[in-house]
Amino acid sequence: MEQHSTAAGNRSTTAHGGRPASADARAGNRTAPPTFGVEEEFFVVDPRTRGILSRGSEVLADARLADGRPTGEFSRAQVEANTPVCDGAGEALRSLRAAREEFGRSAGAAGLSVVASGTPVLGDPASALVSEDRRYTRIAAHVGALREALVVCGCHVHVGIPDRETAVAVSDHLRRWLPFLLAVSANSPFHAGRDTGYASWRTVTWNRLPSAGPPPLLRSPAEHDRIVRALADTGAILDQHMVYWDIRPSDHLPTLEIRVGDVAATAEEALLLACLTRGLAAGALTDVHHGVPAPDIPDHALRAAVWRAARDGLEGVVPDPLTGEALPGASAADRLLHAALPGLLTNGDADLTASLLDRVRVSGTGAARQRAVHARRGSLADVVDHLVAETREGLA
C-alpha cells in the first residue's frame, strides 16, 4: 500500500518537505515550470521462491539514499523511496535510479530482492504482516479483509501548485486523463500466482476501497471538504488522510498528488509518467489562469474508462471519458502526448517525454513485457527475475 496515503505523519520530501511550489508559481507566474517529486513503492521478495516476504525493515535498515528518503509501507513486504522536490527531469531521473540501485544493494546484502510491480506476482498478500505502526494497525482493523487491497505498489507524482483553490481546479481538469496515464503505466497483470486478465490489477483491487478511484468533480475547496466530511460521517474513512482518490490535493501544502499509476518497472518509465503528469498539470494551470472550465465528466463514465484502461493497458482500448471514443492504444498515447505538449514545452521536457513514450511503444508497457516473459516458458519465477533485472537496470 501507499504509506503517504495512510499515514498522517508521512515525511516524504515530495509531498511535505522542501519547496513544493516554485517561487515563480507562488508569485503568480503561471508559465514557470512547476516543481515535482515522485514516490515509488516496491515489493521485497525471496530470490529462491520469488514470493513476497515481510522483511522490508531489513532493506530499510541498510539503505542509504543521498537525496531521498527510504520509508516503510502498510505491509512489511514493501518499501518506499521518495525523490526530493525536483525542478527538472534530469534531477528526478538521477534520484529514481539511485534509489533503485541502493534498494537493490541493501536487499542483496540481506539475501533479498526488490521488485517494481503493482501487485505481488508470487506470494500471498493477505499473509503480509502489517507494519508496526499504530495507524496502520487501526486501518487494517477498520477495513477487515480488504487489507489485502492495501498490499499494492504505486507510483505517485506530486506537482507544486500555488494554492489549494488552484489545486482543486487543476484536479478537475486532470480527471479526463486518468485512463490514459493508467494505460501507459500499467504494470500488474499477475497476482499471487495467477494471470488476472488485467494489465493493472492493482487498480482493480485498490479501487474496492470506498474512498479510492477517480475523484469527483470538485469545483471548489468547500465542495472537496464537504465530500470528505461525508466519507468520514459514513465511516468509510477514519480521517481525511484516508482519501485515496487518484488525484488528491494536499490539505496543508501547495501540492497536488496524482496517484493513478502502477509503480513503474523501470526508472525511465517512472520519469515518463512524471513528465506526462507535470506537463498536463502545467497546461491545466494555464487553463485555470484563463478561466477555462474543467469538463463535466460524469463519475460513472470516468470510472468505466479507468476500468477499461486497467483491463487493457496501452496494448488494448483506452476510452476517452470526455468524447466517449474507444481509442486504440497507439492513438491514446498520441492524444495524451498532444494534451501534455503545451506544458511539456513550458517545462522543457517535450523531446525527452516523446522519446521515452516511443520506447514504451516499441518495448510494450510493463504489463505487456511481464506477459511476454511468461509466454516463453509459462514460468512466473521468470517474470519475477525479469522484474528484478528491470527494477535495477532500467528500460533496455
Overall SS class: alpha+beta
- Please give the count of helices: 16
Instruction: Quickly count the domains.
Output: 1
Per CATH, the class reads Alpha Beta
N- to C-terminal distance: 28 Å
Q: Output the radius of gyration.
A: 19 Å
Unreliable stretches: 1-29
Query: Order of SSEs, N→C?
Result: HHHEHEEHEHEHHEEHEHEEEHHEEHHHH
Roughly what percent helix?
Answer: 40-55%
**β content, as a range?**
5-15%
Q: Using DSSP, what is the number of strands?
A: 13
- Biggest sheet features: 7 strands, antiparallel
Average predicted confidence as pLDDT: 91
**The CATH topology:** Creatine Kinase, Chain A, domain 2
Overall form: globular
Summary, kept brief:
47% of the residues lie in helices and 13% in strands.
Polypeptide structure, described:
It is a single chain. The protein has a single domain, classed as Creatine Kinase, Chain A, domain 2 (2-Layer Sandwich). Helix content is 47%, strand content 13%. The chain contains 16 helices and 13 strands. Strand 12 and strand 13 form a beta hairpin. Helix 5 runs antiparallel to helix 11, helix 8 packs across helix 13 and helix 13 packs antiparallel against helix 14. The protein is globular and about 55 Å long. The N terminus is likely disordered. This is Putative glutamate--cysteine ligase 2. Belongs to the glutamate--cysteine ligase type 2 family. YbdK subfamily. InterPro entries: GCL_type2/YbdK_subfam, GCS2, Gln_synth/guanido_kin_cat_dom, YbdK. It is an enzyme of class 6 (ligase).
Give the topology, please.
Layout: H1 3-6, H2 13-16, H3 23-26, E1 36-45, H4 56-62, E2 69-71, E3 78-82, H5 89-109, E4 113-115, H6 134-143, E5 154-160, H7 164-174, H8 178-185, E6 190-191, E7 194-195, H9 201-206, E8 212-213, H10 221-234, E9 244-245, E10 247-249, E11 255-262, H11 267-289, H12 299-312, E12 317-319, E13 326-328, H13 329-347, H14 350-363, H15 366-377, H16 380-393
Parallel strand pairs: 8-9
Antiparallel strand pairs: 1-3, 1-4, 1-5, 2-3, 5-11, 6-7, 10-11, 12-13
Helix pairs in contact: 4-5, 5-11, 7-11, 8-12, 8-13, 11-13, 11-14, 13-14, 15-16
